[in-house]
Amino acid sequence: IERVHLAAAGTGAAVLGTVGRKLYHYLYETCDENWLNFNAAGLKNDLDRKLYGQHVAAQVILKAVTGFMNNKNPKKPLVLSLHGSTGTGKTFVSQLIAENIYIQGIKSNFVHLFTATAHFPHDAHIDKYKTHLQEWIRGNVSICPRSMFIFDEMDKMHPGLMDSIKPYLDFSDNLDGVSYRQAIFIFLSNAGGEMINEVTVKFWRDGRDREEIQLRDLETELSQSVFSNEGSGLRNSVLIDKKLVDFFVPFLPLEYKHVIQCGLAEMASQGFTPTNIVIKRMADDLIFFPKEERVFSVQGCKLIANKLHFYI
Ligand SMILES: Nc1ncnc2c1ncn2[C@@H]1O[C@H](COP(=O)(O)OP(=O)(O)OP(=O)(O)O)[C@@H](O)[C@H]1O
């Protein structure tokens, strides 16, 4: 009888243990398949339906992220560098990527946003910052190898600071016992934006379709203009010399019709019935270039969320 009791108690404890573990996984985000689940179809769908006017970026990002996430044994972390003028969707796309990898999306404990100017504002403390940044990356990747780091305003980052993250982006088995091969680094910057805008305006002036623009029309010039730009922190950076960036992703300037699409989506997300007249009134008040023809929005879709309530 005692043995039966013991066995029953053992089974009870095991069941409780399983339930406890399940509950723990349910309540607390863990770095495993309970909270990490790459959804390739979801990413494609989001890029097709939610991201407007960025056919080049959508294509590159889908291929890059899907290839990387499906690779069981990547040789280095994925490093994407997103370029374009303000409000064209660089931060937004990073959010879409996060939403299709982490159940918690951009709010996941494994997604980290770093803004050079906000986090490390004083050049004089650069050596201290370097150590902090390296420890921060190392600490986060040792907690979860599938960590995502989004570096905003990369063009304003001190080159020394940028170079200090270089070892983590490279091909290496591990550094101090930590492997970085499953991590994702996304750099955001306005560097190269002007060149991308010029190419897009030229296509438009030549009467060519926006959709005809291909990555190769921008890629070479993009890497040259980004890294030769005097004001760009990316200039002379080891990141480039060592070819640590896997993909340079160009974001085109948005046209009037894309601004309308952004406005309608924003209206819906704020709980209003999307109305063309309202959004058109708002779009008409925005600034467009070239000045005469008013084709491309200077601020992309950036100001829409804030402006909307003036027009409703
Ligand atoms: N191409 C786009 N498709 C759909 N929505 C967009 C697009 N671009 C911008 N938006 C909307 O505008 C908002 C602002 O854009 P976002 O922050 O992604 O711009 P950004 O390119 O990161 O700009 P910045 O260089 O100033 O940081 C987004 O949250 C999104 O709602």
Automatic annotation (TrEMBL):
Location within or outside the cell: Endoplasmic reticulum lumen
Entries under SUPFAM superfamilies matching the protein: P-loop containing nucleoside triphosphate hydrolases
Positions annotated to bind ATP: 84-91
Any single GO CC term annotated in Swiss-Prot or TrEMBL for this entry: nuclear envelope
Keywords: ATP-binding, Endoplasmic reticulum, Glycoprotein, Nucleotide-binding, Signal
Gene Ontology molecular function: ATP binding; ATP hydrolysis activity; kinesin binding
Span of domain AAA+ ATPase: 76-219
Principal subcellular localisation of the protein: endoplasmic reticulum
Gene Ontology terms describing biological process: nuclear membrane organization; protein localization to nucleus
Protein family per UniProt: Belongs to the ClpA/ClpB family. Torsin subfamily.
Listed name of the protein: Torsin
Organism of this sequence: Carassius auratus (Goldfish)
Phylogenetic classification of the source organism: Eukaryota, Metazoa, Chordata, Craniata, Vertebrata
Gene giving rise to this polypeptide: LOC113039140
